[in-house]
Structures are given as C-alpha cells and as structure tokens.
Specification:
Layout lengths: L1 H31 L9 E6 L4 E3 L11 E4 L5 E7 L9 E4 L5 E4 L4 E6 L7 E3 L1 E6 L3 E7 L6 E6 L4 E7 L1 E3 L5 E2 L6 E9 L3 E8 L7 E6 L2 E7 L11 E6 L17 H18 L3 E4 L9 H10 L4 E8 L8 E4 L6 H11 L7 E5 L14 E8 L3 H7 L2 H25 L2
Parallel strand pairs: 8-13, 9-14, 19-20, 19-21, 21-24, 22-23
Antiparallel strand pairs: 1-4, 1-7, 2-3, 2-6, 4-5, 5-6, 9-10, 10-18, 11-12, 12-16, 15-16, 17-18, 22-24
The structure holds zinc ion.
Amino acid sequence: MKMSKLLAGCFFTAAMMMVGAANAGAQQNDSTTVQQEAPAMVKAVRTVEGAFLNSSAGGDRLGGNKIGYLSPNVVMEVVETTEDVGAGPLYKVKLSENRTAYIMPENVVDTLVEPGYFKTVIAESGSVSNVGKADRIALGIGARKPYLVYEELDPHVMTIDIYGVNNNINWLTQKLDLKAVKSVDLIQLDGDILRVKVVFQKNVAWGYRIGYKGNTLEVYLKHLPEKFTLKGMTVALDAGHGGEQPGAISHKMRLNEKDINLDFAYTLKKMLEKKGAKVILTRPDDRTMTMNERKAAALDNDVDFLISLHNNAAGPKVRGTSTYYKYIVNRELAKCILEQVITLPDVGYFGLVGNFNFSLGQPVEYPNALLEGLFMSNEQDEAMLADPRFRRQMMEKTLKGIENWLKRCKEACK
Ligand SMILES: [Zn+2]
C-alpha cells in the first residue's frame, strides 16, 4: 500500500513537471509566433428523410437490425466506419456519452461540425394535449437530438429515450381530456439521457408518429377506434414482390410467388369490403415497387392496419404456414391470424416469428403483421397453393384471424 502510494505520488510529481515544461514551451512559442492552429473539426452525419438506426453492424438478406427511425436533420458524431460484416460499411454514431448505434451511409449526409457542437442540451418545456385523432406530447429540446422508442403491452407503456439531453422541464401539463395517454413522466437517466415514460389508458396499441418540428420533439399517440369492427376501417394489404421481382418460384409448376400474393390480396380485399372496410392495395397489379412506395401508400391513406401477404421458400422438405411481426405490440395480430390458418386441413405449422426485420414490419404508425402462406419450395405446399379453392380458404381464415384480433382489442379495452 505504502509503496503504491509513493509511486503514485512520484508519478503525480513527474506529470506535473511535464505539464509545467509544456506550458513553459507554449509560453515561449506564444511570444515568438502568432499563428494558432484552428481546432480540428469533428466528423459527423446528418440524417435524411426515412433514416433509421441499426443496433449492430451485422446484417442478413433483410439488412441490419433496425432499432428506430429518426427525424431528418438529426446530427450525430461519427465514432468510426465499420468493416462490412453483413450490412455493408456503416457509421458507428454516438447518441450520448455512453450510447452508440449504427447508421447506413445512404441514410445520412456527411458533415463536419465545430468541436463542442455535441454538448448536452437542456430541455425546458413540455406539454401533453388531445389534438383530435391523437394525443400529442411536445418537448422543447433545444436541438434535434437522437431518440429511440420502445413500446410494450401488459402493461401498455412507451419509453422514449432522448440522448444528449438534461431535463429542466419543471412542469408538464397533462390535460384531462386525453384519450390515449394515462400519464407521462420525465426521468433523467445516466447523465445525459432524458427518458419519457408514457403510460396508456388501454392495453391496445394503435400506432404513433414521432419527429421534430423545429427543435420540438413531437409524439402523436393515435386514439383507438371507437368500435373495433371492420366496418368503417381502412385496411392496407401488401401483395409482396411484383413486376420484375417474382419472389420465390415453385420448382414443379414454376408458379411465381408475386402472382399468388396478388391473388391473396384481391381475394381478401373482397372479403374485407363485404364487412364494410375500405381496402388499399399497396400493389394493385403486376408491377415493380419499392418498399418505400408501399409504405407511402399505407401512410398516405392513414390506414388502421396493414397485412403483408407473402409465400415462403426454403429447402424442399420445409413446409407450413407462419406469421411474423417486428414489434411486440403487433404480436397479437400475427398470432390471431396464425391461430386460424393452421386450422386448415393439411396445412403444416411453421411458426409465429417475432423481431422479424422485414421492411413493412418497421412502420410504427399502424398495427401490422405478415402472413407467409405456405412454402413455394415444398411440393405438397406448392400443389395446395396452385388450387384457387385453397387460396380462398386461406384468406377466409386470415379474415377470421383479423376479426378475432379486433375482438381481443375490444375485450382489452373493457
Ligand atoms: Zn415473399
């Protein structure tokens, strides 16, 4: 103990002497030269429309694991450019002192900022109000800082972490006419993370929007439908692939997945319309479409929910039906559809898949789920998919699953 203290003392003295020497040198230089180097600029990136953060530099055929979309013009410090380990070289960016994430170069514009640009800002104002079809949380942040959102059910809570922010919002007015939100609480975490904890009135999630207006972070939490019936709802159906993208091609009959998906969509559309729903087909015919165009079709029509319709492919022995969701709040919708489609005779059970990194599972503005009917790559499944009667039955079960989900939503609201 004594020895280490002594050594530490020696080191301290030596270090002081070195600092002293350096200062003396600097003073000498100051007197002989007036040239001073400008402080080095800091490498940064600025988000563009539709930018999202990844949780790692990894990736597979569906890309890197997305953890959240960001508003345009959020500037973040670049820590490094990663090696290509699946999703291509990505930027590792700093969200706060101790929190990093990854972002694709196409989601940002490179920029340089002055040292000190990334100082922690102080949030000064906040309000929660009912603005008609949604409850709105508005937080005056002072700069466009990055954020991540996590929503869960049982209980229905949303956590919004805003990075590089100190809280000085000393009152948060919460009007009594709120329809979605029960309470909002502000919690300062980890030095420079402001956590917004939203507790909802009901145990049903119907989507939200988040983004900056100026330097105010706005979160719109959609009100639930008055009635959980298809009548009066707007439903988006997305028939996967199309045009130059056939999707999976079956081995024996050379069926194109895109055609079966479109047939699913039109069949289900008719059934939904009979129940009084308005149906938006994101892909109305055999055309090539980007994922962004499909998303835009759903968002522009302010849909109540979206169902993606696909068929699967794997090794020749793998067969069965499956449904998928990205966010835990969409699990019930995917589960209700699966519970029904597996009751069809001779349909195999492949599974209920969560955390699925599918592009059309990413939007948070409305509930959504994906049905992968059967496997195009399995002979038995292929023969079933080739039969229009079977395809109709599969959509009848999908409809039943959607109706069951709406019933459960209604029950959860009691
Ligand atoms: Zn597909």
